[in-house]
Amino acid sequence: MSRPAEPRPREGHGRGGPFPARHLPAGTAAGTPYDLDIRPENAGWAHSSLKVLTLAPGGTHTFPTGDSEWIVLPLGGGCTVATGGLSFTLRGRDSVFASTTDFAYVPRATTATLTSAGGGRFALAGARCARDLPARYGPASAVPVELRGTGTCSRQVNNFAAAARAGGADEQGFECDKLIAVEVLTPGGNWSSYPPHKHDEHHPGEESELEEIYYFEIADGPAGTPGLGYQRVTPSRDKGTDVLAEVRTGDAVLIPDGWHGPSIAAPGHDMYYLNVMAGPGAEREWLIRDHPDHAWIRDTWPGQPVDPRLPLHESHQGRQGQESRQGHQGRESRQGHEGDAR
Hints:
By secondary structure, the chain is mostly beta strands. The chain has a single domain, classed as Jelly Rolls (Sandwich). 1% of the residues lie in helices and 38% in strands. A hairpin with an 8-residue loop joins strand 17 and strand 18. It is globular and about 50 Å long. GO terms for molecular function: 5-deoxy-D-glucuronate isomerase activity.
């Protein structure tokens, strides 16, 4: 399974307050027992969290959910999630490049215990919330796999916890109160999160205000050469977020504001990132504005084929009928440019 790169010391973890930088190289945002520990308190914002946990074979970990809802998402390996008298067995996957995965939703104001017989790595994606929703299992067979863009802008989006989007084939999505989370896979040499886009202001029906975390894993080359990619964020306001980062497995980028994209996969190295978002809006919605200098790229897509390397892995849809569909809330759909730039 994919493992984080060795920590790179050029940026550190601000233990006494917010992180000193928006790019967090692998290991610099660790906090026992987590390989990555991003919370509102150290991110310098109000809503979104992401933790990455490694468990040895037979390992277990219990965490309080506090004022946030959480999704337990296997990155590599499987586990059992016990909460509120319920137990969900997550089959998981070999790596983020191997397949979609099942997952578990854990509500606020409770505790959850992860136990992994074979060991593994697990993402805990969280958002402060106001509603008490039931704990649920999300089967891999119900994760919508979408191909976006064409040509060198082609990418794959696993919409496991995308926000509901009216007007498409399916208007429900997986129900959360505030949390929005998806996985994006970009073939080596391609650009994703393009055109650059933002969601840092509330404009009804046009743009929603969302904090966002990007967590990266990059595939090694054929000879085992460690992979790399690049992430750009440009300011959308005075003194806004400005990042140009070389990203490797285990890195994260915090985006409280700004035009974000492109995410660039180096040739020969497929790129994975997990997007975790939440914000203050009354509605859980994912509305974006494209950067006006780059929005034209969408007009070129209809005339080009989707990259033939996609999908990068086989979807579980239709081949895991034995999985329980307990808690499945439907498939992702579309509304305008809502989320299209992932």
